[in-house]
Amino acid sequence: MRAWLWAEFAFLYILIPPIVAGFIRPYMGDAMLRRIGIMNLSFDVGLPRGLFVFPLLLFTFLSMFIYLRLDPTFDNTKLWSWSRFKGDFKRIINQFVWLASAILIVTWLLAWHTDIMPEYRFLYLPREVPLLMLFITIFYPWVSAYPQEITHRAFFFHRYRSIIGEGRTAFVLNVLTFSWLHITMWNWVAIVMTIPAGIMFAYTYRRSDSALAAGFEHALFGIWVFFVGLGYFVFTGNGMPATP
């Protein structure tokens, strides 16, 4: 059973992200295959590059959600506990207020004082496409943030606690696999900036025992990231950071 769980863990959290990344940008995925000596396979199957992402996320989310709901050893209140969410609400908001200011300053520095981010991307969505920003604000929490807290927090910590425990090792692996998930964006900035994000969300989930609380925090920061312009790096398939 332990060997199966390790194999399942490796497949879901280590192998799937680069495979999806390959389908999103086939020419880069094929180059990755060539580097590891695989010459006869290609990710180019003639389908839209974004086809795999949200359907796969939805399928994974629903599968893991149903598994947790049906598992008698799992406390289902961890999926949406309102009382635990309320207990952590003030801390989440207070933390967001001061971190949001820091994120805004960092984004401005990246846009105006480095070559990492194009200048026009700073506050791009609220300035140029406010309706898209509104759309993201409404749907991002339920389409992306909360599902990821089910797949990468609730399911992760419950399903694999027998092989990774519930302490520091589990926490570190959770943060790293959450960051690794963002390899689909094909840029190093997405990987780097989701490490502190993963630390925050994992801490909130472990502290509150509520995927709702972690999902709310994830949604707050995710929406803000798109608002200030860092969404440029975490929009699936955007390519290398320096590309406009």
Descriptive keywords:
single chain; 244 residues; mainly alpha
Mean pLDDT: 90
H/E element order: HHHHHHHHHHH
Overall, the morphology is globular
Q: Note the main sheet.
A: none
Number of helices, counting only DSSP H or I runs of 4 residues or more: 11
Helical content class: over 70%
Query: Separation of termini?
Result: 48 Å
Query: Runs with pLDDT <50, length 5+?
Result: 237-244
How many structurally independent domains? 1
What's the number of extended β-strand segments? 0
Radius of gyration: 18 Å
Query: Beta fraction of the residues?
Result: under 5%
Secondary-structure-derived class: mainly alpha
Textual characterization of the structure:
Helices cover 73% and strands 0% of the residues. By secondary structure, it is mainly α. It has one domain.
